[in-house]
Each structure stands twice: as C-alpha cells, then as structure tokens.
Specification:
3 domains; 26% helix; alpha/beta; Immunoglobulin-like; four-stranded mixed beta sheet; disordered C terminus; five-stranded mixed beta sheet
C-alpha cells in the first residue's frame, strides 16, 4: 500500500470531521433505492486482526439513490493547507455497496477531507455471475510522487498538412480517457466532460483551498483538456482517445474515485470557460506542477496558487501571476450534448416562454425517475410549483437550493435529462 507509515500517523493525529455521501445508480443512470452501503476504516499495517476492517456506518439509499451525508474523522484541516506538511492530510475509508440483482461494488481508499463533503458516485451492474467490481483509489497527486509532466509547447502548431483541428472551441459531451501512457495497452473510458474535470481536480488539488485558487486551477485543467480536444492531439497520432491519465503526458484521472462538493460546484459554474491569449484561437495548453517536489517556471504552481488565494488574490490575478498578464478567460462557442442552451439569464418566479417550458419538460422527465422531485406541469410559466421542483432537484444534485434556474442548474438539468433518456446513443457506458 502507498504511504502506510504516514497513514498510521494520520490516524493518530485525527482532529477534524469531513462528510461522505454515496450516490447509487444503475447502468442506465436510474437511481437504486434501498441499496446497502457499508463504510469501513481500511485495514492498517500493525493491526492485530489484519483481515478485519472496522465497520463505521451502515446506510441505505433513498428513492433518489442517495445516502444521507455521514460525519467521518479526518486529519486537521491545516494539514491540507500547509505545503510543508508531510502527513497525509485526508482520511481513507472503504465503501461496499450491494443491492438485490446487482453485483457488489467495493471502493477502497475513498478520500475524506476536513470540513468538506465527499461524494462517491457508484454505478452498479446487473448480476452476471459472482463477479465483484473492485476499485482502489490511489493516493492524491499532492501526497504521492507521480511522474512529472513532460514539457510541451503551450500553443500547438496546427498548420501542418493533414493536421485535424476543430473549427471552433466546443465543450465536448464526452472525452475518451486512455487509462495509462499514450503507448500503453490500457483501457479507454468514455467520461462526460464535466465529470472528467471534477475527477481530475479532486485528484490534483485539495478541495479545502480558497475559492479563487480552486477556480484558477480548474480553469488550467479545463484549458489543457480543451487544447487536447481542439487540436485532436492524440487522434492526429493515430490514437482513438482524447487524453490520457498519465501525469507525465496529461492529467491525473482516476477511475471510480470520489469527488468533492466544493470542486463540483466550481466546475458546474464555469465549465464552459478556458484560458486564451490574444490572437490565438486554440485554448492554451496550460501546464502546471505541484510547486513543491517539482518546480516549473512559467507554469502554474498548485501550492503557490494556494498561498496566493490565502493572500486574497483573485482568480485572474492567480492565473496571470503564472501565465502572464496577457492571459484571459474565454468562453466556448458551443456546448455539445444538450437539448437546449441556457437562455443567458436566470429563470425565476414570473418568468415565462419557450425556455421555461423546455426546462419544465426536462425536469418532469427527471421527476419520473427521481421521485422526491415534485412533478412539473410544462406550461411555460415559472410558478411556485416549478420553483419547488427546482429546489428539490438542486438538493439532490448538490446545488445551492435557491429555486432559481441559473447557469449551473440549467446545465445540470440538461445533463441528468440526457443521462436518463440516453439521447447520446452509441456511447459505451
């Protein structure tokens, strides 16, 4: 196991509380009610009974396929804010999920940070034998030493004959992640764009960091990803994937890992953005490093950005501190895989028209599956009934419960609607 000594020390010094919520769906993205969820503390080296793990909680999912959020012990919050700290700043727990008619799912080393809500999404498969799905989450990139990024040009030459590039910057519905180095014989995963970004951010930065720091790092992650998409970087090399999970070539993506609510909220609010330079059409390949074990002049330093955020730097100030004063935040021209684009303004009590009706139709379809959401009459009028349904939707999907359909809520409704109705046919799931 990784870092066993430090893990033991972490357990001894535990001093704070984090939360964990488990969300369970089937292969068609339909929530599974009454799934049994067991949370255990992983086996420690030195335990007298090494084959037994301490059960912490046993929970059942509700009609939305969700457990209640449970409190779990973590190391002190300060550990994840101090770049000189060598003690593991998060706790690990194991999660087992079983439900009649489905294969048992086991997720090892779920990461829990102090004062943060961790969200573990579980997609269950129908029984086909006695097979179990076992996922073991490796250590966080800021705690364990992974291969350093191999430097590349931050602006790609796309003028060569035969090079394939997109005509405009588009937010893809899916990215195809090759789970290894580019030349390895590894598995490819189809991952929705937002879920990919949330996974990478949860793997590479701590959710406890200041808001501006989270935004700056997530913008760098998104811009890097969209450069790979825009330039068709790997497809031009004869590969059938968008990006890899290798830190030496791309960004750390971990199959099945948990995400964090604070990171999820940032991504939901800015997922259509990326970093640009004047006169350059492509998103910039914004490379970065941890800034502690590895230094990277002219790249973003993750720990350095945390320090700047704590000093009160804004998101753009942090970005320009590393990438230069000409760097600016741009917005993609198109978002793929959605039935209708956000109207450009919030929908609230008193709003009416086609956009309201489109949203109501999607929300009512979702309410057929997520029965804790009140049904909606798609009359194009945003009344108190629609508001109540929106609030229930926001509660289930970890959005601020305002009852207002803002940018983040609109696209979350679209994402869940598409997932349920399987509009995107032919995508491996």
């Amino acid at each position: 196991m990784y870092g066993n000594f430090m893990l033991i020390k972490m357990q001894v010094d535990s001093g704070d509380i984090g939360e964990l919520q488990v969300n369970v769906v089937d292969s068609n993205n339909i929530p599974i009610k009454d799934a049994r969820v067991i949370i255990r503390r992983p086996r420690q080296i030195g335990d007298e009974q090494q084959n037994q793990m301490q059960q912490i909680e046993e929970l059942n999912t509700d009609a939305s396929g969700q457990t209640q959020a449970v409190d779990l012990n973590t190391p002190p919050l300060a550990y994840s804010l101090d770049e000189n700290n060598d003690i593991q700043p998060y706790a690990n727990y194991d999660v087992e999920v079983d439900a009649p008619g489905y294969e048992t799912e086991n997720i090892g080393n779920v990461e829990i940070l102090a004062k943060e809500l961790a969200i573990q999404n579980v997609k269950m498969r129908q029984v086909e034998g006695n097979e179990q799905e076992n996922i073991n989450i490796p250590p966080h990139t800021l705690y364990y030493e992974y291969p350093a990024k191999i430097p590349e040009d931050d602006i790609k030459d796309v003028s060569e004959p035969g090079e394939i590039v997109l005509s405009r910057v588009v937010i893809p519905e899916y990215v195809v992640v090759h789970d290894g180095t580019p030349s390895s014989n590894a598995r490819d995963y189809y991952v929705t764009y937002k879920d990919y970004i949330k996974n990478v951010a949860s793997s590479e930065i701590y959710a406890t960091w200041p808001q501006a720091t989270l935004e700056a790092n997530i913008l760098a992650i998104m811009s890097f990803t969209l450069n790979r998409v825009y330039t068709e970087w790997y497809r031009n090399k004869g590969k059938d994937f968008t990006i890899t999970s290798s830190t030496a070539y791309d960004q750390k993506w971990i199959n099945g890992r948990n995400i964090f609510e604070s990171i999820s909220l940032v991504v939901d609010n800015i997922f259509d953005q990326y970093l640009s330079l004047p006169g350059v059409r492509q998103p910039i390949l914004t490379q970065y490093c941890d800034g502690r074990r590895v230094t990277c002049p002219n790249w973003l330093s993750q720990w350095g950005s945390c320090n700047l955020g704590e000093q009160g730097y804004s998101t753009l100030e942090i970005i320009r501190n590393y990438y230069g004063d000409e760097m600016y935040i741009n917005t993609a021209e198109q978002i793929s895989g959605i039935p209708a684009s956000w109207p450009g303004y919030n929908l609230d009590i008193g709003a009416s028209g086609q956009k309201v009706q489109q949203m109501q139709e999607q929300l009512d379809t979702i309410a057929n599956v997520y029965t804790n959401i009140p049904r909606v009459t798609a009359d194009g009028i945003y009344g108190e009934g629609t508001q109540a349904s929106v609030k229930a939707f926001q509660k289930i999907f970890d959005l601020p419960q305002t009852g207002i359909v803002d940018f983040a809520t609109w696209y979350k409704i679209s994402q869940i609607y598409v997932g349920i109705t399987r509009i995107a046919e032919g995508i491996p799931r």
